[in-house]
Write a structure and sequence with these properties.
signal, five-stranded mixed sheet, Neuraminidase, mainly beta, about 45% strand, SMP-30/Gluconolaconase/LRE-like region
């Protein structure tokens, strides 16, 4: 089955550049209709009753023969927790006392820490809820071997600030992607400018903090991940532009040059609010649709490569119905885990689900 993977992206981007063509955007209606393969995947609830979980991140192996361990943010509670796949009924607090705020004018949601990543097995990156000298920063926390719970002010080091004209109260749907030599951070809001930042890694620390995009954009960037390295040694930074949080399938899939920040290609995704992306171990690209205004229509999708009206396009294939998903990550065995806020009719409806099938 065709799918978005590094060689495909490389071929399309190279073709556009060789032809001297700018990255173009099709009209909103010019994307293939979505497909549904939910009957081919199995869902299992791992945790329920969570306060707006987000930021799922797989801890890198430390060299010991231990089971996969995931970290996630209980965003509405201002804390970070962890769980092991071999003890999926237990979770343990890692970090607390992170700040929270309300996001959205209608039916606001309480959010704080939003995105997590790892520089090393013992250095956790936290985006959202980290206040340093009154500024919103990206914080890095050193995880002690005795598993002692940290407080927000015990930051190892930080970079920032994240706010660029917008206030902390407007920030949401942030994203982190950590590569071999740099880390990337997407920050923005519906009503203000957005930006993607990069920070070189020096001696397992975030070094400088600079805007990756040449100028601030009116888009809301989200859902960052790095593509697999292709046979030519190239890699792309992949993200999304959310569009408006309305009843329109206006989210776009965007491929960036991770060094210059240039937009190499952008495609209509056919999704409402594409807030998270991840490549499976086999190289397929998966996305989650928060669908703010139509939560029952959201879920988890595979993005397949396609051509539409003679142009490059992607086809969204739904693999799971999940209400208001916020992050996704793969275990080493290829199993997918997804955090979701769940229904908004009652508090603490958040959950983590495990999805199995052919990825």
């Amino acid at each position: 089955m065709n799918r978005f993977f590094a060689p495909f992206v490389c071929a399309v981007v190279s073709g556009l550049l060789a032809a001297g063509m700018p990255a173009t955007l099709a009209q909103e209606s010019d994307f293939p209709p979505a497909e549904n393969e939910t009957d081919r995947y199995q869902l299992e609830e791992v945790f329920t009753g969570l306060n707006n979980p987000a930021g799922l991140a797989l801890r890198p192996p430390s060299g010991d023969d231990v089971a996969d361990e995931f970290f996630f943010a209980e965003s509405g509670a201002g804390r970070v927790l962890r769980f092991s796949v071999d003890s999926p009924t237990e979770n343990h607090e890692v970090l607390n006392e992170l700040t929270t705020h309300r996001l959205g004018a209608e039916d606001p949601i309480e959010v704080g820490p939003w995105a997590l990543g790892f520089l090393t097995p013992s250095k956790l990156v936290v985006m959202g809820g980290v206040q340093v000298d009154g500024e919103e920063q990206v914080g890095v926390y050193f995880l002690p071997e005795n598993a002692k719970v940290l407080s927000a002010n015990q930051v190892d080091h930080s970079v920032g600030p994240l706010t660029t004209g917008d206030t902390v109260e407007q920030l949401g749907f942030q994203a982190v992607a950590v590569g071999e030599t740099s880390a990337y951070f997407a920050s923005g809001s519906e009503n203000a400018t957005g930006q993607i930042y990069s920070s070189p890694l020096e001696a397992n620390q975030l070094d400088s903090f600079r805007p990756l995009l040449k100028e601030q954009i009116t888009e809301w960037p989200a859902g960052l991940c790095l593509s697999p390295v292709n046979s030519a040694g190239s890699q792309y930074l992949v993200g999304s532009y959310l569009g408006e949080l309305q009843e329109a399938r206006d989210s776009r899939l965007v491929f960036f040059d991770p060094f210059s920040g240039s937009v190499l290609m952008q495609l209509n995704s056919g999704l409402f609010d594409l807030v998270g992306l991840a490549y499976s171990p086999s190289g397929r690209l998966y996305a989650i649709d928060f669908a703010w205004q139509k939560p029952e229509a959201g879920g988890v999708y595979r993005l397949d490569d396609a051509r539409w009206e003679g142009r490059p396009a992607c086809r969204a294939v739904k693999i799971a119905k999940v209400v208001r998903p916020t992050s996704l990550a793969f275990a080493s065995d290829g199993t997918m885990y997804v955090t979701a806020f769940g229904s908004s009719d009652k508090p603490k409806q958040g959950k983590i689900v495990k999805i199995t099938g052919e990825f």
